[in-house]
Amino acid sequence: MAAFGFAILVLVSIMLLASRQPWLGLSLQWDEPNQAATVRASQGPSTQVAVGTQISTLRAPNKADIHFQAVDFIIEPDGNLPDYTHYHAFLERLDKLAKIQRESQLTLVTDEGDEYKITPKAHRPLSSMPADFWVQLIVGLLAFMIAATVWSFRPNDTAARYLLLSGFATLMFAPGAAVYTTRELGIPIEEMLLLKAMNFGGGMLYVGTMVAMLWNYPRRLGSERIALLIVGFSLLWFMAQALGLFESMLIGRRLPVFIGLLLTIILAAVQWFNTQRDPVARASLQWFLLSWLLGTSLFIIITMVPQLYGVNTAGVQGYSFILFLLVYGGLAFGILRYRLFDLGEWWLRVVSWVGGLLLLMILDMILIWGLGLSSSLSFSLALILGGLIWLPLRGYIWSRVVEQKIIEKPIFQSVLDIAFNLNAEKQQQMWKSLLVKLFDPLLIKPSSNFYETATLIESGQKLYIPKLSLIPSFTLEYADGGRRLFTRRDEALASQLLEMLRHAESSRNAYQKGASEERSRIALDLHDDVGSRLLSSLHQDALDTTRDGIRQAIAEMRIIMNGLAGKSLPLSEIIADLRHETVFRLEAVKINTKWPVKEDLDGILLNYDTYRNYLSIIRELISNIIRHANANEVCVSIKYEKGIFLTELSDNGSWLLKDAGKDQHGLNNLNKRAEALNGSITFNFNNTQRGTLVTLLIPLNDHQSITGAS
User: Fold this and answer.
1) Mean pLDDT throughout 442-456?
2) Sign of the CA dihedral running 496, 499, 504, 507
3) How many angstroms separate the CA atoms of 64 and 41, rounded?
4) What is the mean pLDDT of residues 426-434?
5) Where is pLDDT greater, at 186 or 397?
6) I want to staple 494 with a disulfide (CB 3.0 to 4.6 A). Which of 383, 411, 454, 535 is the partner?
7) Residue 541, SS3 per DSSP
8) Mean pLDDT of the chain
9) H or E stretch at 456
């Protein structure tokens, strides 16, 4: 709150100073060809002066006329005057204009002799201030508040203290420039000296603190006294030029800024080299370099590039102060280590974009000044050449530096190898090897953290990998051998690997469960069908009955073997084998068989469960006829129509009437098997003739069957 109160006090003072100036209601711009000031806008006291009027002279009673000169309309003297002699003359001109502005009545005179009499207001209303006035005040406020906020979080951090000092400097130079860069005509010399002291003094302090900050940020390069000497030297330079020790404005005002910029570049390069094994410090430095590069490149686009084509950009100086907020934002994020892990890729994108811009500018200047081409032609050629040179180069750099060349097939194969390896120790080794291959962490160790997904920890210094069924959780530290932080892309890749591995393990478990269930089913079938038939055969006295039991056991084993192969069998093949088997069994006990061959069963496939239950039902029925019916003839009819498979089996005996009650368990088994097929089985006694008619109806369009071309 104290920082905010101080900043508001500074801004209120600046607004009071700006409002103390007399108000003409004019916005003038120097017209060099006509050697006159052109009216761009008029309001208030000067409403009667039309826009576009060219004023050459300012006149007041009892005062010498002032003929306008180009120097009167210089917005920023530091970059437009050659020496301090001209600078002091400029200040005196502004002072004369300020004094004549305070007269009760003024006369604006045109080249043609036309006169406009105006009565200035004693104070300039704040509502008349242009937008760039407020922009510069807001920039000063926000820069100082950003710096103060960072310092409040890290009061013992040297970089945060220098950031606070640079924020104070911005609070001085930006609002200080707001008054004189938006003046109507003149400013009293005392006030102008104060404003320029705020502006240039704040600017020198800003340059010194930025250099001192890079001496300490993100790593201290040497003694802290060096940083203090840098700040002290910048203030001494300001005092020296104020005392008149320099004649040239280039040396007094512009050279220290260039020196500071050069030192910033050098120290940034040194810090970059020193942080190559410290990814956190490197990422913090990237925040500064990103904002600095972006701010500088935008400043070049806004203020310098248009000048190549003859466009005056003096009017946008106030707005260019906004770019300082980018630097403060980047420094604040870097010092606070905000989302360092998100910085990598788009930092390089900005660098590549700035590189393309610089190449375009260099080519354009070569074509304009070296070959003497027109600005429009040179820009077109520079754009074409820049595209031919930079785009392939950028693509090459991007593929080598940024893009992670991940070959999906080997990774997928590695994940499958891990998932299907049931040795826990081996599985852990394979998983660690894959993580090392993909991320090359400086350290990889078991973790006590618990997150459900892959998670970035400690600003990207670590990447947490959660546990799996046989694999413990791990923490990876410092990617690429300690050269960078883990990024969101790394986090996403790890999550994808985990999802793949979980899916593969789930598939493996499902496979193992299915295999176990299949083994259990086969064991049950062998026990219930084959085993029971063989056991029954052993206890039969009649040799024919024993042989029949053994044949059925062998037939059941064939069915089970087909089931192991997992094949669906054609219905025509199933019926043919069953017909052959049934005829053979019945002939062995002197029973005649009538079973017409059907030709309309092609193209129908039955899966294992369907044909196994079907065959078991028919075999059980034949066995019951052989054992109980006392029949001498069996008739079988097969029909298939509209998805319904109908089997009718009849005999001329009487087993159902006589012995159904004795073999209720067998009948129950037949009904259960029919229900398993979603079908039905019925037993009907023939009243006119001896025997029983068994009808088995099975719908073959359900899940237990497959229909299609054979």
Assistant:
1) 83
2) negative
3) 26
4) 87
5) 186
6) 454
7) coil
8) 80
9) strand 455-457
Instruction: State whether the Cα torsion 328-292-294-374 is positive or negative.
Output: positive
Q: Are 364 and 301 in contact (CB under 8 A)?
A: no
> Residue 383's pLDDT band (boundaries 50, 70, 90)?
low
pLDDT per position as a tens digit, 210-237: 899 889 988 899 999 999 999 999 999 9
DSSP string for 33-100: TTTEEEEEEE-GGGTTSPTT-EEEEEE-TTS--EE--GGGG-S-GGGT-SBHHHHHHHHHHHHHHHHH
CA distance 165 to 144: 9
Assigned fold of 131-342: Rhopdopsin 7-helix transmembrane proteins (1.20.1070)
Distances (CA, A) of 536 to 227, 396, 523, 525, 539: 102, 80, 18, 16, 5
Is the CA virtual torsion 467, 470, 474, 476 positive or negative?
negative
The answer to whether 445 and 475 are in contact (CB under 8 A) is yes
The answer to whether residue 703 scores a pLDDT higher than 50 is no
Q: What pLDDT shows up at residue 459?
A: 72
Helix H or strand E encompassing 318: helix 317-320
Q: Is 589 helix (H, G, I), strand (E, B) or coil?
A: coil
**Helix 323-336 / helix 279-299 crossing angle, nearest 10 deg:** 180
Q: In the 8-state DSSP scheme, what is residue 446?
A: E
354 versus 291: the higher-pLDDT residue is 291
Q: What does residue 374 show for φ and ψ, rounded to 5 degrees?
A: -70, 160
Give residue 424's pLDDT. 81
Find the helix or strand (DSSP H, E) in which 636 lies.
strand 633-641
CATH superfamily of 579-707: Histidine kinase-like ATPase, C-terminal domain (3.30.565.10)
- The CATH label, of 2.60.120, 2.40.160, 2.30.42, 2.30.30, for the domain at 22-122 is 2.30.42
Lowest mean pLDDT among 100-104, 452-456, 474-478, 540-544: 540-544
103 contacts 120 by C-beta, under 8 angstroms: yes
Cα–Cα dist 314/181, whole Å: 9
pLDDT of residue 231: 95
- What are the structural domain ranges in the chain? 22-122, 131-342, 408-511, 579-707
